[in-house]
Amino acid sequence: MIRACRLGHMLLLCCNCDLSTSAQVFRMGSTVPTSADALVAGLACHAPIFPVKASNISVLREPRHFFEILKNGILRSKKRVVISSLYLGTDQLEQELVDSLAQRLNECVTASPLRVRVLLDCIRGSRGKANSRSMLLPLLQAHQHRMRVSLYHTPLLNQWFKYVIPEKFNETVGLQHIKIFLFDDDLVVSGANLSESYFTNRQDRYILIKNCPRLGDFCERLINIVGAHSYSLQPDDSLRAGQIDPLSMWTKSQFAESFRQAIHDLIKPKPTNDITTGRSDDADTWICPLVQMGPYNVRQDQRVMSQLLKETLPGCRTFLASGYFNLTEEYVDLIMKSQGQYRILTASPQANGFLGARGAAGHVPYAYLHIARWFYDRLLHERQTSRVTLEEYTRDGWTFHCKGKVVCALIAWWMDGEILS
Q1: How far is CA 380 from CA 39, 112, 295, 325, 390, in A?
Q2: Which 8-state DSSP code applies to residue 269?
Q3: 236 a catalytic residue
């Protein structure tokens, strides 16, 4: 699948990893091992990095906690709510979030004018009669001057392809897959979409980072850039293109270059000696957001991920999870050549969200099972099963959507936050 927009990963640097804790700490200063200093300096050559306090970072355990954080975050916001997801569902819990937005917008009118920015995928958000657009339209009509709904449409899916490729299948051409939820200066990075299963029985991962204004500003600028290259939902349910229409065959190259340049300007690294700018004395953790936008030749996440896999040291333990096990050949080769220990977790066919779907989609779980078996056969052939283990997640009535990478002894926690691949 070509995902058009994807905030690839959030990278938390840490030492003395203890997987039972809710946040890992990377101590900066003279007590940090030289390898940690080198890793921070190396990351600063690839991307902006942001210092935060480890005590402000929490790992949410359950889908219901994720929903509660979203709802409470909306109701407490005073200056901004920034929401980015593949789509917004149409069930009761999703309506509660929309109602919370309406309540907060009505409360914050004069003294503290709240601004709301929503970014969704145009194709997925427009599917069916009751869809993301119909859920947000009444809110937009009532607060159009303080609310913006952007619908990203991949330029790869032009009108001809829309005519040829059936609904649902056309979403495989390209998607907006950013999952960011920002409430003032509190940020939630996740892989979860805004639909009922992700709030009840679909296991994902959710990282809450409180009081991170600079990181929040970065994420809002990212959403604004994607939004500026998207369609804007209008109060009459029509769509308005920005300065460049992504589907116009006459401006296709101009659109791609404008998008690429804007993202490049955002994510370009600062000079190494500026990486501590704005750091408070009690900050002890670095967060490095990485962006992957394949259609626009932005491959920051891929570049750093490959480098980390190459530099895995003997004795290093890596925990890797994916709801859809489909490693690239490059990553498979790097894992096979690595000297570290790997423990990989993926969804069993019973925990795959496509299980029981109608048509060809119902076969998706078994396609991933085939890939997992191919990978395991290669482990057997290369006698790597003592170093690399592959496990399946199974829980009655639940599906599995977690994606992430935890590296112990290499001072890094790599969390796949899902934003262009």
Answers
A1: 33, 61, 36, 18, 12
A2: P
A3: no
List the one residue out of 190, 202, 201, 210 whose CA is nearest residue 83.
190
Phi/psi for 10 (5° steps) reads -110, 130
Residues 179, 229, 403, 405: which is the catalytic one?
179
262 vs 229: CA distance, rounded Å? 10
Q: Measure the CA–CA gap between 124 and 174, rounded to whole angstroms.
A: 10
Rounded to 5 degrees, what are φ and ψ at 367? -65, -45
DSSP state of 49: -
Q: Around Cβ 324, how many Cβ atoms within 10 Å?
A: 18
Residue 179 among the catalytic residues: yes
Q: At what angle do helices 213-228 and 252-267 cross, to 10 degrees?
A: 170
Residues 6+ apart with CB under 8 A from 263: 222, 225, 291, 293, 296, 298
| DSSP-assigned letter for residue 224 | H
Q: Which of 123, 100, 241, 242 is nearest to 181 (CA)?
A: 100
Are 361 and 168 within 8 A, CB to CB? yes
**94, 135 Cβ separation under 8 angstroms:** yes
Choose the catalytic residue: 9, 143, 184, 186.
184
For the stretch 23-80, pLDDT in tens is 233 333 333 334 555 666 777 788 888 888 889 999 999 999 999 999 999 999 999 9
Phi, psi (deg, nearest 5) at residue 387? -105, -30
SS3 for 262? helix
Residue 52 pairs with which residues in a beta bridge? Answer: 285
Phi, psi angles (nearest 5°) of residue 237? 75, 10
Q: Is residue 184 flagged as an active site residue? A: yes
Given the residues 9, 143, 153, 177, select the one marked as catalytic.
177
Q: What is the pTM of this model?
A: 0.88
Q: Counting Cβ atoms within 10 Å, is residue 360 exposed (0-12), middle (13-18) or buried (19+)?
A: exposed
Neighbouring residues of 405: CB distance < 8 A, sequence distance ≥ 6 = 9, 318, 319, 320, 321, 414, 415, 416
Q: Which residues in the chain show pLDDT less than 70?
A: 1-40, 110-112, 159-161, 163, 166, 168-170, 271-281, 409-421
Record the tokens describing residue 26, joined without a space: 């990377």
**Ramachandran angles phi, psi of 314, nearest 5°:** -60, 135
- The Cβ-side half-sphere exposure at 45, using a 13 Å CA radius, reads 8
Cα 284 to Cα 10: distance, rounded to the nearest angstrom: 16
